[in-house]
Structure of Tyrosine--tRNA ligase:
Amino acid sequence: MELLKILRSRSLLKDATAIPENLINSSVYCGFDPTAESLHVGHLSTFNALVLSSIAGLKPIALLGGATALIGDPSGRTQARAQLENAQIEHNTKCIEKQISKVYEGLVSRALHHKLLNTKLPLTVLNNANFYQDMSLIKFLREVGYYFPINPLINRDFVKNREDSITYTEFSYSLMQAYDFYYLCNNHNCMIQLGGSDQWYNITTGTELIRKKLDKSAAGVTLPLLLTADGQKFGKSAGNALFLDENLTSPYLIYQYCFNLPDVGIKDLLLRLTFVSEEEINETMSKPLEQRECQKLLAKEIIAAVHGEDKFHKVKKASDTLYRRNYRDLKSEEIDMVFQDAIKFEVTSEETNENLLELLARIKVTENLWAITRLFKDKALRINGDLVTEEKSKLSDFSPIDGKYFIVHTGRRKVSIIIIK
């Protein structure tokens, strides 16, 4: 089947059930539970699979789990998820709905740029909360629960591997996902569901429900888990997800994450997360490894798809500027992006004429005067990249960047920003 061939060529195929023969005017879907207010970089492989599905003539559907997020998917978890409040789910859903459309358009643009697509099929975004508006518990048990014997369900790995007992609420999740698939098949001619490899049982529960209720052969396709060479989940930085919302994760942080990836496994990531041709990937890999061209290419494609190509060029310029320590070439927007997570302090113009060490201690850049004095004596205090060499220095001895910013390095890694208000 063409879809499987396409996904396999991009290292995006893990397992698949039998694919139906006639898929004319059929749809394919993938679900996104709004358990956070933003999707993360790891979701991009699923988005790419949706875009690639359109090459096979399938109409893509993104399903927001406004209902299932209230339950919580137990797959791959050893403990129960904390339940989210309705208001939080509604907020997350609104955020992610906008994000899904934006990211899909960005990825389609990259696929067209790389001539992988000739035309685009519009993405349909639905919310499964609407599927359950008129669904009573009695109706759900009769319409869905009736078709599933209990023994096969409780013998599944996600039940056996739980450190604590599984709740009935979580246990119902796979049946709700099955109903989602059934609803989409019945109302949108959706014949294929895409999902991560941990979704196999949930997906096949859906194909079984469709077979029993509609006498149709729907299909499930899973994608391999996206891991780095050291076995870590791709898109995690210091244990935190790299979000697609730039207010939560700056594009600069995504660039640095990609730039620091090991060479091992980089081709696989380029195949799964971008639409760059394998020929171009191989050509890029032939360049000297120390230039890190593959890592830069990965960063470019991700940032261009999610935030736009102009944003990538700003990130690249800022990164090059920092590497050369040409801090004075930075602009306000670049400082805000690069040092998004840095602690920021405001001072008046008059305060810039105070003794620098005393000022830094008073506004709590360090714990106290002793600590900042120790950093000064250890030659570990820099302002805008310049080493502080005089104990009687003032902040005004250094030229502010873009008229108001001072980048303060206290030690090798800690950075603070002082802003003249």
User: Anything to note?
Assistant: The longest strand covers residues 190-196.
